[in-house]
Amino acid sequence: MILVMKKAVALLSGGLDSALACTITLQLGFEVVGLNLSTGFCVGQGRCDTALALASRLGIPLRLLDVGKEFLEVVRAPQHGYGSAMNPCLDCRILMARTAGAVMEEEGALFVITGEVLQQRPMSQHRRALDLVAEESGLGERLVRPLSGRLLGPTHPERMGWIRREQWLDIQGRSRKRQLALAEAWGLTEFVQPSGGCCLLLTRPYAARLRDAFAARGNKALAEEEFALLRFGRHFRISPTVKVIVGRNETENAVLGTFASGRWLLSVVTVPGPVSLVEGAAGGEELELAARLAARYSDARPDEPVTVRLSVGDAVQESRVIPLPADDPRIARWMIGD
Ligand code: SF4
To answer: N or C: which end of the chain has fewer CB within 10 A?
Structure first.
């Protein structure tokens, strides 16, 4: 007789909680397929690699899916609002659960598991939020949180009699003591350390720049590449419609150069200095301010005139400017998120 194992899809982020949820489900005798979703807003590149290492350690296959486009729509207009920064966690979790549901269908799996823990995060992991994610993702009782399962509503595997309710755990709250003890007991060492800083939308500088861009341009008007550009350089809102972005190092200078299409590109010619971009309908006065701002971050002495080349499309011009003084109070006022 061939024994066919019942299959679950596990959202595997690379963090400890999802790895534990996966381990519990495997220990209960289910087959598990891991699923790692990339939003495009991860800080660092390590999570996907860590999810791969964890999947390999757990002996399960891992599917990698890019949900960046769908996620941008969520960031632009979250139905359930933003958290403490610009993180639309509830909508994000709904999107992830819904995507996992589609993979569940494809895989012929019977339920989805996540590492969510009741009350771990104030906005997205209280009881009502967990129920809402289950409901709005369309998964209902097929969305299972093994780490807190005993404290939540009944799940599909329980209803079907595949497991007993007490086989789920009853972890809740922000402390990670129990999870760390389980990780040690089960030899899980590869996970991304829980720091809360894994998502760009939670970081102050990025959130401030995004808020500014939405206010200046409207949430819907921001193109995909502009979300990426918010990661690089120092950003200055020098007028309601004009923003200047100044590279902070050689890598950022090179990156800013790739975003030049449709923007003024500024480079300091006579001394080493940053590459800068000007966004928006800048007039002569704003371009001069931008050139002086760029020169402020060059190697020029405070009162040394420097030449700045400004180009957009085929148009090139040069401007001789005095760098803005480092203590010009407008600089701090203009700066967004640093
Ligand atoms: S922190 Fe970022 S990735 Fe995590 S749930 Fe919130 S929006 Fe999604």
So the answer is: N
Q: Are residues 185 and 241 in the same domain?
A: no
- Cα 173 to averaged position of ligand 1 atoms, centre (Å): 18
195 and 230 inside one domain? no
Same domain? For 41 and 98 the reply is: yes
Query: In the listed set 133, 167, 199, which residue is the last one of a domain according to the structure?
Result: 199
> Distance between CA atoms of 263 and 252, rounded to whole angstroms?
16
Output the CA 184–ligand 1 centroid distance in Å. 26
In the reported structure, the alpha carbon of residue 3 is separated from the centroid of ligand 1 by a whole-number distance in angstroms of 38
Query: Which atom in ligand 1 lies closest to the alpha carbon of residue 83?
Result: 6
Q: What is the pLDDT of residue 189?
A: 83
Find the 20 Cα to ligand 1 centroid distance in Å.
19
Has residue 3 got a pLDDT over 90? no
Among candidates 35, 154, 163, 51, which has minimal Cα distance to 106? 35
The closest-lying atom of ligand 1 relative to the alpha carbon of residue 196 is 1
Question: Which one of 143, 176, 199 terminates a domain?
Answer: 199
pLDDT exceeds 70 at position 194: no
Provide residues with CB under 6 Å of ligand 1: 39, 87-89, 92-93, 199, 201-202
Q: How far is the centre of ligand 1, averaged over its atoms, from the C-alpha of 14 (Å)?
A: 13
Question: Which pLDDT value is given to residue 5?
Answer: 84
Whether residue 1 is contained in a domain is answered as no
Same domain, 61 and 190: yes
From 286, 287, 289, 292, select the one nearest 316 (Cα to Cα). 287
Average pLDDT of the residues in 53-78: 96
3-class DSSP assignment, residue 321? strand
Say if strands 264-268 and 275-279 run parallel, antiparallel, or are unpaired: antiparallel
Share of residues in the chain with pLDDT > 90 (%)? 87
Asked if the structure places residue 63 within a domain, the reply is yes
272 found inside a domain:
yes
Q: Which domain holds residue 44?
A: 7-199
The tens digit of pLDDT for each residue in 252-301 reads 999 999 999 999 999 999 999 999 999 999 999 999 999 999 999 999 99
Which residue, judged by its Cα, is nearest atom 3 of ligand 1?
A: 199
